[in-house]
Amino acid sequence: MDEVKRVLITGGAGFIGSRLALQLANRNYAVTVLDNLSAQVHTGRPEESRLFRSVQNSVRFIRGDVTNRDDMTPALADQDIVVHFAAETGTGQSMYEIDRYCRVNVGGTALLLDILANSKTTVNRVVIASSRSVYGEGKYLSAEFGAVYPSHRSLADLKRGDFEIKHPGCKEPLTPVATDEESKLHPSSVYGITKLSQEQLVMTVCPTVGIDPVAFRYQNVYGPEQSLSNPYTGILSIFSNLLMSGKGINVFEDGIESRDFVYIDDAVDATILGIERPEAKNGIFNVGSGHAVSVYTVASTLSRQLAIEAPIEVSGNFRLGDIRHNYACLKKIGRVLGFTPKYGFDAGIALYCAWARTAGSMQSGYEQSLSEMRQKGLLK
After folding, report:
1. Which residues is 8 bridged to in the sheet?
2. CA pseudo-torsion sign 299, 301, 305, 308
């Protein structure tokens, strides 16, 4: 690079943000991180968390909140690029902490854009972290109708243990296929709604004020330094922490439900392409591995890789707001940005488990989170 680029990463002490911050610092960017060091992500004394300590000597760090104008305004001063990661995460929790999710995710993004729209700014690109959750259920093929986008599953079907997707007029079973960026957007959780709102705000407002917007719809990102104590960070960390704590795994539904798991370094590589490539301007891109892995396969693979034998129970429990299948079509990001994931699931999970063994088990709020969801009627 001929000149030093200045980049602000909101949520830059989080899982993905911290890894991105280090990569950009190594590429001679001047990196500023704004993060409130949320206790849900940074357990214990937040300023002593591993994620924070990994970046504190490589970036300019501001402890602040994206919903606070007095924090955001100076952080945005003299920046060239903003990567907006700061958000509340967790589909289940979002269904009963609705105000907090909307206030932070939608309100924080609105404040960011309000400042950019109403002040003289050097920012020329905003990269927004969207999510695969904007799709709700993914794309399916029907023998009768071709591509279809089924609505959320009914409570009656789920209670009967019928977890498969239904679509009006389809008598033959539906086949999940890779979900592309042109697929229907119909999120099934408050979290998904807030991520879609963030994405639409950025893609709508930025061009009107001369700023290039880029949106990445990340699938399930995993890897070393993922929080083992945060019950809303994903099933890989939840399952591995249960195993290392000597506990069994409760696999919801019938275990066949699947997700797309993308290794952290692939997610960061894609994000850097969105920062650096002119072709990313005005683009919305999926970021994933392009492959679906069943939840039962995740549990059994972790047990094998960690060399821990524990009961894996397929319980038939289910959470309202959960989807059945969704995995990413990567044709667009490959064609426009040249992105190809380097890590398949087996390679990525081996690296993750090698790290998890050194990190060890941690006290988790997982059981408490399940109790809260049962009390709210969201876990059956």
Report:
1. 32, 82
2. positive
CA distances from 211 to 49, 59, 79, 121, 214 (A): 34, 24, 12, 10, 10
Give 327's pLDDT tier (boundaries 50, 70, 90): very high
Residue type, 113: L
Long-range contacts made by residues 147-152, C-beta under 8 angstroms, separation at least 24? 147/177, 148/174, 149/183, 149/184, 149/186, 150/174, 151/186, 152/188
Q: Is 191 a catalytic residue?
A: yes
DSSP-derived secondary structure for 61-77: EEE--TT-HHHHHHHHT
If we measure between CA atoms, which residue out of 127, 131, 116 comes closest to residue 282?
127
Q: pLDDT digits over 237-271, tens only?
A: 899 999 998 898 999 999 999 999 999 999 999 99
CA atoms of 370 and 319, how far apart (whole Å): 10
- Tens of pLDDT, residues 82-125: 999 999 998 888 999 999 999 999 999 999 999 999 999 999 99
Q: DSSP code of 107?
A: I
Q: What is the mean pLDDT of the chain?
A: 93
Tokens of 26: 């190594």
Please, which pLDDT band fits residue 1 given cuts at 50, 70 and 90? very low
The pair of structure tokens assigned to 255 is 């275990």
163: which 2 tokens?
Answer: 């977890």
In angstroms, rounded to a whole number, what is the distance separating the alpha carbons of residues 64 and 33? 9
Let me know: does 273 contact 299? Beta carbons within 8 Å. no
Q: How far apart are CA 147 and CA 151, in angstroms?
A: 13
Distance, in Å, from the CA atom of 333 to the CA atom of 107, rounded to the nearest integer, reads: 28
Q: Which of 191, 222, 263, 327 is catalytic?
A: 191
Helices (H), 226-330: 235-244, 264-276, 295-305
Q: How far is CA 326 from the centre of its chain?
A: 13
Q: Helices (DSSP H) in the chain: which residue ranges?
A: 15-26, 50-55, 69-76, 91-94, 98-101, 108-117, 155-159, 190-205, 235-244, 264-276, 295-305, 331-337, 345-359, 366-375
**Which helix or strand (DSSP H or E) is residue 88 part of?**
none
